[in-house]
Amino acid sequence: MKAAPLSRRFVALTLAAVGTLTVLLAVGGGAPVAFAATPTAGEPAADGDHEPQLTELKVRVDGNLARVSFRLEGAIDRTFAERLSSGLPTGFVYQLELLKDRKRWFDRPLGTNTFQVVAMYDAATRGYLINYKLDGKLVESRMVREPADLEHAMTRVEDLPAFELDSVPRAWRLLVRARALVGAKTVLSLLPSRVTTDWRESRKFRSLNELPAES
User: Fold this and answer.
1) Can you tell me whether residue 153 is helix, strand or coil?
2) Contacts of 163 (CB under 8 A, 6+ apart)
3) Domain locations in the chain?
4) Which H/E stretch holds residue 148?
5) Is residue 83 very low, low, confident or very high in pLDDT (cuts 50, 70, 90)?
6) What is the mean pLDDT of residues 55-79?
7) Which run of H or of E encompasses 80?
């Protein structure tokens, strides 16, 4: 059984003439996840289409944790709805990096993490089961039934405990950058390629640790 139609907001976009492509990617050793396909590289997007983007990236230091919040916009479209209604696990992968700010050189990487949000239609309950994995480990599951709740649950991340700061000196200026893996496209009409948002960077912040300021 297929899911009940999603809201018009979910399906208002028109696919380009190239059609659709199902791309299955295994992330962090987990089960494959279906991502919505986009037009072939070099072709114009459908009327009314908007490039997905990550916005409102913020970091809150909570003890020895860097908690991250952000929004994903423009990633829910007709192709996403079709994949979800077909019963495939469908979602996004958020890639996160913790960096030490260096004014006169490239920022120094201190850690990386992934946050995976995957939804699947449950015909028995007529709802959508959403699983959340942080660094490949299941951290939460929830069931929603309304399309608006589904969109909010998959594209709004609040206070995610993304990085531990217990070994980071307070003297260091830090930042988090993030992007989202939102789909796939074809290159030269043959090869599938990942589609991501642009990287976004947070404001600079510091840990609360009184540790020696090593280089």
Assistant:
1) helix
2) 65, 66, 68, 96, 98, 110, 111, 113, 176
3) 8-42+52-201
4) helix 147-155
5) confident
6) 94
7) helix 78-85
- The enclosing H or E element of 81 equals helix 78-85
- Hey, which residues does 114 pair with through a beta bridge? 95
Identify the burial level of 207 via C-beta atoms within 10 angstroms of its C-beta, where 0-12 means exposed, 13-18 middle and 19 or more buried. Answer: buried
Residue 37's H or E segment, with its range, is strand 32-37
Proportion of the chain above pLDDT 90, given as a percent: 53
User: Is 66 in contact with 174 (CB distance < 8 Å)?
Assistant: yes
Q: What is the DSSP string of 127-147?
A: EEEEEEEETTEEEEEEEE-SH
Residue 74 DSSP code: S
* Residue 206 tokens, joined: 């510091």
Classified as helix, coil or strand, 154 is: helix
Torsion-angle region of 139 (φ positive above 0: left; ψ -120 to 50: alpha; else: beta): alpha
**pLDDT for residue 34 is more than 70:** no
Q: What pLDDT digit, counting tens, does each position of 131-172 carry?
A: 999 999 999 999 999 989 999 999 999 999 999 999 999 999
| Token couple for 125 | 């309950």
Burial of 27 (0-12, 13-18, 19+ CB in 10 A): middle
**Tokens standing for residue 54:** 């990550």
